[in-house]
Amino acid sequence: MTASPGEGAPRTVPELPAMRYRRARVSDAEAIAALHADSWRRNYRGAYSDAFLDGDVFSDRLTVWTTRLRDRQVKERTTVAETDEGLAGFVHTVSGADAEWGTLLDNLHVTHDLKRAGIGTQLVARAAQALVVENGSEGLFLWVLEQNTAGQAFYQRLGGTCVERDLVNPPGGKPERLAGNPACLRYAWPEPSELLRWLDQRP
């Protein structure tokens, strides 16, 4: 489940230092897990249970990311955005995840203080670039919480179309981690190449 890089109240973003984008390494697992846990705690209230979010979410995410990056699967790609100060954001995709919709953009998270600076847009565009190179015309899709209207607006701005509504899958397959029966929306890009124009934008 993705989080919106544009979610939250408007803020003034300071001038960004030089941003680098690269494939994630096993040594990035701790920083990625910390950002993932922080993003869930800030943005998933009401969908995930408070007991789960207020518990040791970091350890849960560290186990997931250590395994993902250590046992890298051919169909999976994790790209990070970083500065000299450290991790600024990351995106994770799984190619061929759906026979109809193609590659799943499974995670997109940006450091809270750097949201609305264009990092999320760059990460989505770079994920699309890798998809076009490796899988040609395969589509791209993601799931976003129904409550996350800012995230939906962000994906719509990038040309995504809402094509389906469903219930949220519980993290780790554990229903007790959900707060009731939250819903999510599938956004899709049948032609991911359309996202490549965003690569020319800052940062």
Describe this structure in words.
- The structure is a single chain.
- The chain is an alpha+beta fold and 203 residues long.
- Helix content is 29%, strand content 27%.
- It is built from five helices and seven strands.
- The longest helix has 17 residues.
- The chain is globular and about 40 Å long.
- About 2% of the residues have low confidence.
Supply Rg: 16 Å
Number of continuous helical runs: 5
Low-confidence stretches: 7-11
Q: Approximately what portion of the residues adopt beta-strand conformation?
A: 25-35%
- List the secondary-structure elements in sequence, H or E: EHHHEEEHEHEE
Structural class: alpha+beta
Number of strands: 7
Report how far apart the termini are.
24 Å
Q: What about the largest sheet?
A: 7 strands, mixed
Mean pLDDT: 91
Helix content: 25-40%
The order of strands across the largest sheet is: 1-2-3-4-5-7-6
In short:
By secondary structure, the chain is α+β, with helices and mostly antiparallel strands. The protein has helices at residues 29-43, 50-53, 57-70, 119-135, 149-157, and strands at 20-23, 76-83, 86-98, 102-110, 140-145, 161-167, 183-189. 29% of the residues lie in helices and 27% in strands.
How is the topology of this model organized?
Blueprint: E1 20-23, H1 29-43, H2 50-53, H3 57-70, E2 76-83, E3 86-98, E4 102-110, H4 119-135, E5 140-145, H5 149-157, E6 161-167, E7 183-189
Parallel strand pairs: 4-5
Antiparallel strand pairs: 1-2, 2-3, 3-4, 5-7, 6-7
Helix pairs in contact: 1-3
